[in-house]
């Protein structure tokens, strides 16, 4: 099967399989892995744990389950957000709804880098992982199981992500999600990712044309500077491949990225 033009379909298949897996089969599996009396949370859950109970530092060797998302993000950036996160999948189901423009005040991608430390500080003072009590990923993972019983209180944790989705695509992922912020921070040093081949790109030589890629991008990761430097925001790109599908000249490539992070690629 030809890849270009079909990434969207492949991604939907992976997202739905992941959603079903985490809701029905591995209930809570995305949030917590228990080993005897030890509990290992998701990557942001562990960060909160370190702040809530500094003794966690002593069990760092047990954090092998954190190593997987950390290494995965260092290689592929925020691919988790684009391909596996059950909240992202639910939000993508709303991708074609008409938007109401109320998000302007909220709309700064740096907000998530304030929200994440705020919850870490909260965990320190409250002595428990404070974000986990409102985490919509946890809400989905705990919302049902093979028993088929739906838990409305857990599903209700999706209210904020879905509510602000009415304003902008992936607004939760772009502006507020502390898990996304943690992965975005790691993505600064990611090894692979999408970039623009400025030789092939029409926008570079014909300033007013094309830009199908930035119109398709749900996270605004492709900016005007991308057409000059070839760089796409490392922190905002979720590797969804929609730009790759839409580019008529094959200028979008998934490739090795330079080690040095360009200031405008953040
Ligand atoms: S869709 Fe392709 S050719 Fe068009 S602006 Fe984007 S990278 Fe350039
Ligand atoms: S730059 Fe491309 S792969 Fe990255 S989020 Fe935007 S559309 Fe998806």
Q: Could you report the average pLDDT, rounded to the nearest whole number?
A: 83
Helix content: 40-55%
Q: Determine the number of helices (DSSP H or I, runs of at least 4 residues).
A: 15
Number of strands: 4
Please state the oligomeric state of the protein chains shown. single chain
Shape summary? globular
Q: Could you give the order of the helices and strands?
A: HEEHHHHHHHHHHEHHHHE
Distinct ligand kinds: iron/sulfur cluster
Strand order of the largest sheet: 1-2
Low-confidence stretches: none
Major pleated sheet: 2 strands, antiparallel
What is the percentage of strand-forming residues?
A: 5-15%
Structural class: mainly alpha
Q: Describe it for me?
A:
With 266 residues, this protein is mainly alpha-helical. It has two domains: 7-187, no CATH class; 192-256, Alpha-Beta Plaits, CATH 3.30.70. It contains 15 helices and four strands. It has helices at 7-25, 43-52, 64-76, 79-84, 86-92, 112-126, 136-141, 152-155, 159-165, 171-176, 178-187, 202-205, 212-216, 224-229, 242-246, and strands at 32-35, 38-41, 192-196, 252-256. Strands 1-2 form a two-stranded antiparallel sheet. A hairpin with a 2-residue loop joins strand 1 (32-35) and strand 2. Helix 2 packs across helix 6, helix 3 crosses helix 11 and helix 6 packs across helix 11. The radius of gyration is 19 Å and the shape is globular. The protein starts with 6 loop residues before the first helix and ends in a 10-residue tail after the last strand. The model has no long low-confidence stretch (mean pLDDT 83). One iron/sulfur cluster is lined by residues 196, 201-203, 210-213, 246-247, 249, 251-252.
